[in-house]
Structure formats: structure tokens, C-alpha cells
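Hi,

Apologies if this is the wrong queue. I'm a grad student, and the batch job for Uridine kinase from Schizosaccharomyces japonicus produced an output file that my downstream script rejects. I'm not sure whether the problem is my script or the file. Here is the sequence I used:
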Amino acid sequence: MSSMTSLSSMSTNAVTYQPPWRRIRFVGIAGPSGSGKTSVAQSIVKSLNQPNVVILSLDSFYKPLTPEQRQQALQNNYDFDKPESIDWDLLYEKLVEIKAGRKVEIPVYSFIEHNRLNETITVYGASIIIVEGIFALFNENIRSLFDVSIFLDTDPDVCLSRRLSRDITYRGRDILGVLQQYSRFVKPSYDTYVRTQAKYTDIIVPRGRDNKTALNMVYNYIIRTLSHQSSGHMRNLSTLQAMAPTINDITLNIIELRKTPELEAIKTILLDKSTDSDSVQFYLSRIGSMLMSLMSDCLAFEETEVTLHSGSKWTGLKLAKQICGVSILRSGGTLEAALLRQYTDVRMGKILVQIHGETGEPSLKFYKFPHGIAAMDVVLMAAALRDEANVLMALQVLVDFGVPQESIILVVYVSLVESIKTLSLVFPKITIVTAFVEPSAERCFSMLDIEGVYFGC
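Support response: The file is valid. Your script probably expects a header line. Output copied below for reference.
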């Protein structure tokens, strides 16, 4: 299989799907305190205008202080401007996890409290990570992860004026304390540690954030990187489709509604161009209820004993695990009401995946899951399984959050044979519950725009 350049075997029946964030690019930005590192990083994000570019500040990885050290810091007597103040092991661990496509919790450091807070920031689904800090290029292990390294060479007087403004306005310092700390720690650190990083950089930017020409070079590099990722992702999808098995060789569990005269009549009504929107919604809701009832047969149950009104005992069944419904916005919204009618105590989650109009690449825009989703049975809802890119991404997100494939049930109205085949190659252990399995989109095109008809737009 020479075509499998970025698809590796997971087992004899499955290969890995590589979503865009599995090919993350790291950009490191170093420079003296006040050189404009944060401003440059924010400018890069703004120029790209994409949600999948994330800034990580080295400040988040300052080591927690002891009570004595914290007291020194409150008196401006603690040296933060030395490499030993950074938790390099934790930073490296988090960057490696991000590079592997995992969900990562980044610590939050308070310069007012001079300590880490209990809260964290979740990083997941990024394609570009910008790491900025005065020592961003100092550690060899961290430096080895960067695809491009930038050093901002800014005049010391400019740096001092910016530091005064920042520390007084945002960090609750007084001007005397800032000047003392600068002369005792910041300036000596620049001479000893910071400026030596320039020899490790790909681009040295004189005048820092004010050098628009050099910064445009950085923007163009990142834009080319994202473009390369998009084309690479679509090649991977094409490879998957070419490798997909025949429908008779599919191993995943496909459960289709039993063909009855009632179901055929409903399908006829839905395909009829003259059917009004109210009738469409009514009959889609009817099919949704059928699908959720069929889906229930796929869930695990266990014995339980209850007390009857008469006081005697009864041994029956209950769900073995909590159910979580996750809808792919907005198509999955057409099935949410049916799931809630079936299980009133179901937990709900959302995934928003957008497909780029030109490249066809899926992009993760939003996700929200209930706590402990990895231990639940997950019902993933979409209107149709026609363009497997968005469903593949949604499934990969759930797997990345620790949900076993065996615990995922994909519920859709319509499934195309080719999409089922592709899905079976990557996630062979999921279950698909569907009303109609169609050989091609042309045969049943109007049903494949279910969300548009359902929501009237």
C-alpha cells in the first residue's frame, strides 16, 4: 500500500484518520521583556483570521512558588527572569501531547497572586501553536519542536517603557518596584540568557512588532503551512475512500429500520416536492422516534431490583451507563427532540464542524461535552451520512476525549454506501443506526438536505 503515506495501521481492520490538528505546526517567539512578543503573536492570529491558531504564553509555566518565595515576589525581590523559574518538563509534556492531537489542560498563572490558579485553559483542535516568552528558544527540547523560530530584537529603552506600562496597569505594581526589578533581574537576564537565543532563530526581527516587512514573512509562512495541511488532509480522505472495502466486507454494525409499507409511504411523502414544510417536520420526527427506539436496542442494560407499590420486590432492567447525546450542529439538531423523548435524563453535547467551501477540509469550530463523557454511551446525531469528512472529524473528537468506539452509536436518517465503507475502515467498532441506506446521492438528493428542509433554510 504505497499510497498510505500518512495512514498507519491500527489493526487488521482499521487505519488511523489524521484530522488537520494531527499535523500541528509550532512557532516559537522569543525576545526581551517588553519587545512585543504577545502583540506579534496576536497580530499573527488576527492576520490569519482562523480559530485554529492558538497562543501559548511561557508565563503560564512558571513554577509554583513556596510561601517564602511568594512573599519575596510580592516585594519585587524574586527573580522570575532566569530559565530555572520555568517548568520545562511540564511545558515539554504539554507540547508533545498537543502534537499528538490530544486534549490538553494548560495552567493559568496569576502575576498578582504570584502563583498558579486552580483553573486551566483547554487546548484542542489547533493547527498552529504559537509559543511566546522571553525564554521560548532557550530549552533545546522545546526548541526542537518548533517549525519556525523568531527572535524580536527591540531597543532596551522601548522594552522598559512597555514593561512599565504593562506591570503598572495589568499586574498591580508600582513604578519604583518595576524599576528595581528591571535593574536587578531583567536587564542582567537579557545579557546572560535572552539575547543568546538569537543564534537559534530562523528569523530575527529588528524593531520587534513595528517591523511590518519581517512580520509579513511570518504570516506568509503560516498561510503556506495551512494551505499544505488542507491539501494533505483531502489526499488522506481520497486514500481512505480508495482503500474502503466492498459493502459485503464491512465489519461495523449497521442497523437499518425494517422496510415496512408505513416507512415506504413516509419516504414517498418526504421525496414529494409538493410536500409542505410542516408535513416534512412531522414525518421526520416520526422517523426520528423510530430511529431512537431502534438505537435503544444497542444499549447495554443490567439487572436492578425495585420496590413495588405493594411493597414487594421486582427484578428488572436499567441502563448500564449514562447516555450522552452529541449532535453535529446543525444537522444533528433534527434528531435531538426524538432522543429527549426517548430518554428525558440524557446528557447533551455539541460539535460544530464546518467544511471549507474551496478545499473541502473540515474545521473544528466548537465543542462542548458533559463531564465524564468517556464513561458514557454516546449517541452521535447527524441528518445524513453523505460527506464523511464532518462525521469522521466528530468521531475522532469523541475518541480523543476517551470515548471507546464500542460506546458510540451514530444515528442518521440517510446513509450513503460509499460513506459507510469509508467510516468502517477507520472506526470499525461503532454502530450506525439509519433509516435508509442509499447507493448514491443522485437517487435521493432531496433527502440529503434534511437539515435545510427541516429548519426551513
